[in-house]
Amino acid sequence: MSTSTIHDIGYRHYEGRRSGRAYVLRSLYVHNLRAAFGLGRPARAKIMPFLVAALMLLPAIGSVAAFAVTDQEDALIRYASYANIMQVIVAIFLATQAPVLASREIRFHVIPLYFSRPVGHLDFVLAKAAALATALFALMAVPVTVLYIGGLVAKAPDSGEQLLRYLGALVGCVLYALVLSAIGMVVAAFTPRRGFGVAAVIAVFMLSTAFVGAVQGIAEANTNFTLQGWIGLGTPFNLVDIVQVRLLGARSSSPGIAPGVAGGVVALAECAVIVVGSVAVLYRRFRKAGLS
Amino acid sequence: MNATIAMITFRAMLGRRRALLLLGLPLVMLVLAVVLRATGNDDLDVSTEVLQKVALAALLPLLALIAGTGVIGPEIDDGQIMYVLTKPIPRQVVVLTKLAVAIVLVTAFAVVPTLLAGLVLTGTTAGLTPAFTVGVLVGGVAYSAVFVALAVMSRNAVTIGLLYALVWESLLGSFAPGAKQASIQQWAMSVTDKLTSASPVESTVSLPVAITLLVAVTVVGTFLAAFRLRSLTVASAE
């Protein structure tokens, strides 16, 4: 047969300004951040994230109220401990929303549609991870801020000290958000079937907590506090808490804290490995999903 | 019971990586049990702690949630359930079959590993191992019925189940004693408590109440699932 050619049938070319990579990143980020709270989706997708966020806020409000009435400093939950105390709620939010961001598009095989446009693989992954991390940060930072402002209004002593602790807790929240979203996204990206992603993410958290908790309990009974501290690196919440205690000067709210500054540095390094590793794994995962 | 539906459901639950998820959970517990045994930390207190906190409070609700919602939830979501519902099979048979599959899965991946972990840890001392095995089994049946019903009724079944299992049973249970009365975990503990002479096992619910509630929850869950499936409206996927 004859050689085929593509004819120019006269469509007009686009010669205006291209919005560029930053615009792509921003659009993906905003879209995913909205999706993380179910905004722009039907009402039933909004129920769970907002219900969980409300649950997250309740103890903070209660604590501020108790502080205002009794005027005892113990009544105000420590800022840096809040995320750790409420870790079940945080884990449930992560488990329900990580699959929304990481597995829906894989499930419906629409990833190639993204990559048929000028969207880089890395940009795509970074925007998703950043969006989930931002959502988690908001989930944890809002109650902490409520605690801080409540404390200010109710006149907690040492306002300078309080501000310092509040800022330290915010840094901790950023770290929590990064580590948790990294783990949640990877697990969710590999379990695209509906419902399984949620269960898989929560399973990682519950089992690591149960396993580490059992070992810590036994180590404590044998007065082996070194093991009790180091094994804490095995669960995400305890891991970040080690960084908070050793490097940010918070008070411990976990059963075991690795000793010395070295413990904090090791924990911080592990956080970095988790985050970078997760981006690398997600990059490969989405690039492969984009080929089909 | 319908063998074909059971087959299809088993294949959906165990196909590809999903079996790994189901298998990985009990494996962690078994590894823990072996490590504890190897390091000599296998007295009655520790064994009770592991069997209660890991097997009954973490592994069982998780697996029952995965199995209970997994057998029917995804099919309803993507509309494949229509291919089953348009066959001349009574809806209650569909629900019973799915429930039976869920119970078999929970037995295989939670009850048997509990038995194995118990045997590794204590052998048959004080009847602890059989007691926990039976407790996990009756708890598993009740959990499965509840979660199958949830999956038929709501698209957020997994999250609601998580909130129940983690927030209601674990968190509120440790603050507000009243919440313990309405907790499948505590009812299962009550059965376990009756069957073992080991003193570290304590329950807060009396046995007759626990058994009545377990049976009631299972029956009501099954009926509710069958009833809701009769008038299921199938929407498009998301």
UniProtKB/TrEMBL annotation, chain A:
Q: Does the keyword Ribosomal protein apply?
A: no
- Could you name the domain of life of the organism this protein comes from? Bacteria
Which keywords describe this protein according to UniProt?
A: Membrane, Transmembrane, Transmembrane helix
Residues that span the membrane, as ranges: 47-69, 81-103, 124-149, 169-190, 197-219, 257-283
Name of the molecule in the record: ABC transporter permease
Which organism is the protein's source? Actinomadura syzygii
UniProtKB/TrEMBL annotation, chain B:
| Signal peptide residues on this chain, from the entry's feature table | none
Q: Does the keyword Signal apply?
A: no
**Domain of life of the organism in this record?**
Bacteria
Q: Name the residues that span the membrane.
A: 53-72, 93-119, 131-153, 160-179, 205-227
Q: Does the keyword Plastid apply?
A: no
Which Pfam family, an example, fits this chain?
A: ABC2_membrane_4
Alphabetically list the UniProt keywords: Membrane, Transmembrane, Transmembrane helix
Q: What is this protein called?
A: ABC transporter permease
Q: To which species is this protein native?
A: Actinomadura syzygii
